[in-house]
UniProtKB/TrEMBL annotation:
Matching CDD domains: EAL (cd01948)
Domain GGDEF residue range list: 263-394
UniProt xrefs under InterPro entries: Cyclic-di-GMP_PDE-like, EAL_dom, EAL_sf, GGDEF_dom, HAMP_dom, LapD_MoxY_N, LapD_MoxY_peri_C, Nucleotide_cyclase
Organism of origin: Vreelandella piezotolerans
Keyword Transmembrane helix applies: yes
Spans through the membrane: 150-169
Protein name as it appears in the record: EAL domain-containing protein
Keyword Transmembrane helix: yes
SMART domains linked: EAL, GGDEF, HAMP
Stretches assigned to the HAMP domain: 170-221
Occurrences of domain EAL (ranges): 399-635
Keywords of this entry: Membrane, Transmembrane, Transmembrane helix
Superkingdom of this protein's organism: Bacteria
């Protein structure tokens, strides 16, 4: 039984006890008072009547008339005249009780009043004895009426008391519900905080839980910071802070092997010419400062991610990857300004920065792409200015000729509905955790992957419409195969759209059984506003049994402390950290640290982009809970 029910029962029992006790005391007191008054009345009336009869002639007819006259007033139950030997001379008795007082009440009260007696004199001798008993009907009626009035007042007082108790209980229940919800969140490893209630006992509990949540947040922040420091020590160049060559090549291979929107972009390679000569001119420390300035200037060109994909390939070569960048001509002025800032930082030296810009796509191979970069860089080195930039334009095949055609085609394709691909996510026992189901759209008479159409969907702000179509398609698939669990992607634009969230909640509330089989995944590029929107989305859909995850999580993901109260079910590690993990102790260390941190919050860790069994076995030894990718097959 709940505490609130116990409290209500206690209040009702207290009111009933007060009513019954007060009623019993009132009835007992009134009955005692009435008995005392009737006893006195019996004695007085018997004495008065006996005195009147003592003064009359002792004619039996006259005495009988006097008794009858007295009895007929209606206030007596019986009047009996006995002679000196106790024989009845005159007797008058009333019929049984007449009135509307219930019999159970009369039997409960049951007055016990002695009969009033008096002696009748005839001169100096005793003529007889008069016995008189007053009528109790009026006393019963008076007491019954008194009890009804008392009950009425108690009902009124009880109603008022219950109304006040309702307000008080509600005041206790609301903070108690928050405390209970917080306790459930903590048991589910969601360390939320609540407003401290005014009730002393509940406030102490809430304070203790809030302190626990704050300590967990602090612990997560510290562990995330340690993990980030470890990652930087293992993956970054200590002089410039750029990624080392192996890590950057892994990121490049991961992007080229994916089919999402980030698989298309621009690559910028900068070579600091005559680095040894610059070192002699400026000194070792100043040269290192120049290289750090170059890395910071190039990293500032990336605006779509928290951390730029910039690496140091060797002593003098730096490579910057700009996913989602499409127009080299738009990048060129910004790049020239960044390079000019670097050369201006060392005016006393002849700083020459040869630069190449090449576009990359998901169907490119890493070797030819780097060869194109080297060729362009050689052209840039042959120039005479301090910042020569060679640009390799590529003929980009497009499905449609202009923006209007793209918009029309995308609108029609979304209305017709997407197609879902199925990629299993398995655990160490080769059991399916869920299926990744990226969307395909029918464009130009063929089913196209996300890397083809997502940039255009983003440009036309069609993400909510596409995501809603994907969810509806997933529900249809689940209706046909209810034993499956499907993971679908939601864009950040969709979770930030209040109308989309409301429509999604209403759609899933109509099919709660199928909704519990859905896993919603959002990209790791979350802003503070997006985290708030994700928290609201999870609160709205978690009661339906939906699960939530973060995908494409790289080693630089440091938002876990901000997401500890969201209620994530899993986190998918980006394939750039997975590629070649079986031969990289550094990657194993980072993934193991991420898994340990996530497991402390009850979050599963899933590896993306696994390409062979060696990677898969190494990942499960590292501590991940699941894996997906080209190398994952169901046995």
């Amino acid at each position: 039984m709940s505490l609130i029910k116990q409290l209500w029962l206690a209040i009702i029992a207290l009111l009933l006890l007060s009513f019954v006790g007060s009623l019993a005391i009132s009835i007992t007191s009134s009955r005692d008072y009435i008995e005392q008054e009737v006893r006195i009345k019996n004695a007085d009336n018997a004495t008065t009547l006996a005195l009147s009869m003592s003064q009359l002639d002792k004619d039996l007819v006259i005495l009988e008339l006097l008794i009858s006259a007295q009895f007929d007033t209606g206030y007596y139950r019986s009047i009996i005249l006995r002679d000196a030997e106790g024989e009845v001379l005159v007797e008058r008795r009333a019929d049984g009780y007449s009135g509307d007082v219930p019999a159970w009440f009369r039997s409960l009260v049951q007055f016990d009043v002695p009969t009033g007696t008096a002696t009748i004199q005839d001169g100096w001798r005793q003529f007889g004895t008069l016995e008189l008993e007053s009528q109790h009907s009026y006393a019963y009626a008076s007491l019954w009426r008194s009890m009804l009035e008392l009950a009425g007042w108690f009902l009124l007082a009880g109603a008022i008391s219950l109304a006040i108790a309702t307000v008080l209980v509600r005041g206790i229940k609301h903070p108690l519900v928050r405390v209970v919800a917080q306790a459930k969140d903590i048991s589910a490893r969601r360390f939320t905080t609540i407003q401290e209630p005014r009730t002393l006992e509940l406030r102490e509990v809430a304070q203790a839980m809030n302190v626990l949540s704050a300590n967990v947040r602090q612990m997560l922040s510290q562990e995330s910071q340690k993990l980030d420091e470890l990652r930087r020590d293992l993956q970054h160049d200590r002089v410039t802070g750029a990624l080392n060559r192996d890590v950057l090549m892994g990121r490049l291979a991961s992007l080229l092997g994916s089919d999402d929107a980030r698989a298309t972009g621009l690559m910028v390679m900068v070579r600091v010419q005559a680095l040894e000569h610059l070192n002699d001119q400026l000194g070792h420390q100043a040269t290192d400062q120049l290289l750090s300035t170059l890395v910071k200037a190039l990293a500032a060109l990336e605006t779509s991610a928290d951390e730029a994909l910039i690496g140091r390939l060797n002593g003098s070569d730096f490579l910057l990857m700009l996913p989602l960048e499409e127009q080299p001509d738009a990048l060129l002025p910004r790049l020239q300004q960044a390079l000019a800032t670097v050369t201006a930082s060392a005016p006393q030296a002849d700083v020459r920065l040869a630069t190449a810009i090449v576009a990359y796509h998901s169907d490119d191979e890493r070797g030819p792409l780097l060869a194109t970069l080297d060729d362009a860089l050689a052209e840039a080195e042959s120039g005479s200015s301090s910042t020569n930039i060679a640009l390799r334009q590529r003929e980009q095949g497009s499905l449609f000729g202009n923006h209007n055609e793209w918009r029309t085609a995308l609108t029609v394709a979304i209305e017709q509905g997407p197609q879902l691909a199925y990629f299993p996510v398995i655990d160490a026992q080769n059991q399916v955790l869920h299926y990744e189901c990226p969307a395909r759209l029918e464009l130009a008479n063929a089913w196209q992957t996300a890397g083809i159409f997502i940039p255009w969907v983003t440009r036309f702000a069609l993400e909510p419409a596409l995501d809603m179509a994907v969810v509806k398609k997933a529900l249809g698939q689940l209706e046909a195969n209810p034993d499956q669990r499907i993971g679908v992607n939601l864009s950040i634009a969709s979770i930030n759209n209040a109308q989309f969230v409301n429509e999604l909640r209403l759609l899933l509330e109509k099919q709660p059984a199928l909704a519990s089989k859905l896993c919603f995944e959002v990209p790791a590029t979350l802003t503070a506003h997006s985290i708030g929107s994700l928290r609201g989305l999870c609160s709205a859909l978690r009661p339906l049994g939906c699960q939530f995850g973060i995908e494409h999580v790289g080693a630089e993901f440091t938002k876990l402390a901000d997401l500890h109260d969201v209620g994530l079910a899993y986190l998918k590690v980006d394939s750039s950290l997975i590629r070649g993990i079986h031969v990289s102790n550094e990657q194993q260390t980072i993934v193991r640290g991420m898994a340990t941190l996530c497991h402390s919050l009850g979050i599963q860790v899933i590896a993306e982009g696994v390409i062979d069994s060696e990677e898969l076995q190494s990942l499960f030894r590292t501590g991940v809970d699941g894996a997906t990718g080209p190398g994952v097959r169901l046995s």
